[in-house]
Amino acid sequence: MKRILFISLLAAIAIASIVTVGWFTASRVTFADYRERGVIILMYHKVNPDWKTGGLGLRVPPREFDWQMHFLKENGFHVVSLNEAVDYLEYGKPLPEKPIVITFDDGYRDNYYYAFPILKKYGFRATIFIITGIVGKTNEWDEREGKPTNYMLTWQQIDEMAKYGIEFGAHTVNHPRLTKVPLTVAEKEIVDSKKMLEEHFKRPIKYFCYPYGLYNDQIIKIVKKAGFRAATTTKLGINTKGVDLYQLKRVRVTGHMSRRQFVEQLEKYLRERA
Fold it and tell me: What residues does the NodB homology domain cover (predicted)?
């Protein structure tokens, strides 16, 4: 009986191995068919193993983030900067095959402690959208709604990441719902966040991200007037040449997503046009 159980166990392991290898092989072959489809922009928030910092809707455990970055590396994806992506979308400037952009919203401190080492491990860059009024503090906008406290990046950490090649964009000063506040307040939040980052970095800040993904035509006009080159949304999809640069789509990655779902989501958006 023990011999039969042992043989059955070996058979099950062998089948599982074949299925797993087959899935990754199929993924590699399938992805190889896509050229000039467009640019996927991944959207992350927290990369943190601690459940006390919040649910998996905004939090991806580091081991899963590492697996995702490894998958991109091993399957021929080329991580490009948001600036390179916009150069392609606006002017048609060439990009490598299967270009992908990595972005983080809010600027959580765990981006430095957990995501940054993994990005360096694979030689990847990313863009982090900073809430300029709470650098070095906590997520006050969430705390007011009774959500868990998270610490935000410090300027020292931001400078270290920028020196490596991480790009930083603006995400307002205090993270308001821009469509729910007076336009004068919205404009100040947008303009001041840009100014604060430019004063710190001593160079233009080109990219903006709408808090909560909320915006309208009036907000877009303010973003344009402020001098931003483009802005990211929470709308799902892939970006192709001719897309509205102030309504860039992204692919949201959450901790609820299985590894298979991560792969399938990439494949889904590579199959469709924006």
Answer: 98-274
